[in-house]
Amino acid sequence: MIRVLLADDQSLVRAGFRALLDAQPDIEVAGEAADGEEALRGVRELRPDVVLMDIRMPVVDGLAATRRITEDPDLGGVKVVMLTTFELDEYVFEAIRSGASGFLVKDTEPDELLRAVRAVVEGDALLSPGVTRRLISEFAARSKEPAAAASLARLTEREREVMALVGIGLSNDEIARRLVVSPLTAKTHVSRTMVKLGARDRAQLVVLAYESGLVRPGWLG
């Protein structure tokens, strides 16, 4: 059972998400929060698998709450998916840097929301379907100059290749087709790369790919 915490200051939004999620046999809403401070208390008390976190909330905003969750080693198993009204919200880039596993626009289709919640638990989710590559491109254009890539020395040549493909937004199936390997083999390479680099999830792997200089803006395709 996937346990979800809903954090949004609009009760109608929470009610809509709750109705959708609770109707699924493998998902349950463990709790709700109307601001970032409540979300933090709920996460520490309930230890949900996924937090659907609105970016703009009173008391403590979603970005600050996300940073505090992802920086707490005791909450390492909690995945945060940011909720935003606009696909390219200016805070989304900082949210991904801060450890969020991705983001969804609030008017996303129900099937996409359910798919995202299930996928992020598996470590496969990055961003809202349909805008992944566009957002990665925007992120890359705004990112800092690449830092020293010493950490990449831990990776095999194939793992670097896989990391670069993750960095340009390819799914495991797409990576498998590109490298002519099975999807399971591609997933294994991605998982091993994340472990070696200490990446929380796929989103953080993308950030590391850009910040290390392994992938540069304009390499989408």
UniProtKB/TrEMBL annotation:
<keyword id="KW-0238">DNA-binding</keyword>
<protein>
    <submittedName>
        <fullName>Response regulator transcription factor</fullName>
    </submittedName>
</protein>
<dbReference type="InterPro" id="IPR011006">
    <property type="entry name" value="CheY-like_superfamily"/>
</dbReference>
<keyword id="KW-0804">Transcription</keyword>
<dbReference type="InterPro" id="IPR039420">
    <property type="entry name" value="WalR-like"/>
</dbReference>
<dbReference type="InterPro" id="IPR001789">
    <property type="entry name" value="Sig_transdc_resp-reg_receiver"/>
</dbReference>
<keyword id="KW-0597">Phosphoprotein</keyword>
<dbReference type="InterPro" id="IPR000792">
    <property type="entry name" value="Tscrpt_reg_LuxR_C"/>
</dbReference>
<feature type="domain" description="HTH luxR-type">
    <location>
        <begin position="148"/>
        <end position="213"/>
    </location>
</feature>
<keyword id="KW-0805">Transcription regulation</keyword>
<dbReference type="InterPro" id="IPR016032">
    <property type="entry name" value="Sig_transdc_resp-reg_C-effctor"/>
</dbReference>
<feature type="domain" description="Response regulatory">
    <location>
        <begin position="3"/>
        <end position="121"/>
    </location>
</feature>
<dbReference type="InterPro" id="IPR058245">
    <property type="entry name" value="NreC/VraR/RcsB-like_REC"/>
</dbReference>
<feature type="modified residue" description="4-aspartylphosphate">
    <location>
        <position position="54"/>
    </location>
</feature>
<dbReference type="Pfam" id="PF00072">
    <property type="entry name" value="Response_reg"/>
</dbReference>
<dbReference type="Pfam" id="PF00196">
    <property type="entry name" value="GerE"/>
</dbReference>
